[in-house]
Amino acid sequence: RQMCIRDSEQAFDLALEQARKYAQSLGEQDADGRHLLWVLTRDRRCSAHRCLEAMGAGIEGVRQGLVDVL
Questions:
Q1: How far is CA 52 from CA 9, 23, 24, in A?
Q2: What H or E segment, with its residue span, contains residue 49?
Q3: DSSP 3-state of 58
Q4: What is the distance between the alpha carbons of residues 68 and 18, in angstroms, rounded to a whole number?
Q5: What pLDDT shows up at residue 69?
Q6: Could you give phi then psi for residue 27, rounded to 5 degrees?
Q7: Pick from 31, 34, 23: which is nearest to 68 by CA?
Q8: Which pLDDT tens digit goes with each residue over 23-70?
Q9: pLDDT digits over 1-24, tens only?
Q10: Would you say 31 and 22 are in contact if contact means Cβ atoms under 8 Å apart?
């Protein structure tokens, strides 16, 4: 079980780093929830992506909404 927790933490750290890089590519100093959500919706293997789909949230609609506010 510890291995799963560690792997999960590494995946989260990677997502945060990708969110920071995405924010910087947009000229922003810091990443926030919008940037993190963008990153999470890009990877179909991500549990957040699967959860959004399971809840009926259209991933493309979520992404388009993020584009509109970013």
A1: 20, 22, 25
A2: helix 47-54
A3: coil
A4: 20
A5: 81
A6: 85, 15
A7: 34
A8: 999 999 999 999 998 888 887 777 777 888 888 878 888 888 888 887
A9: 344 445 577 888 888 999 999 999
A10: yes
The position carrying tokens 């922003």 is 28
Which tokens sit at 1? 């079980």
- Do 34 and 64 contact (CB within 8 A), yes or no? no
Within a 13 Å sphere around the CA of 38, how many CA atoms are in the beta-carbon half? 20
Q: Extract the tokens encoding 28.
A: 């922003």
pTM of the full structure: 0.73
Tokens, residue 65: 């909404």
Residue 66 near residue 38 (C-beta atoms within 8 A): yes
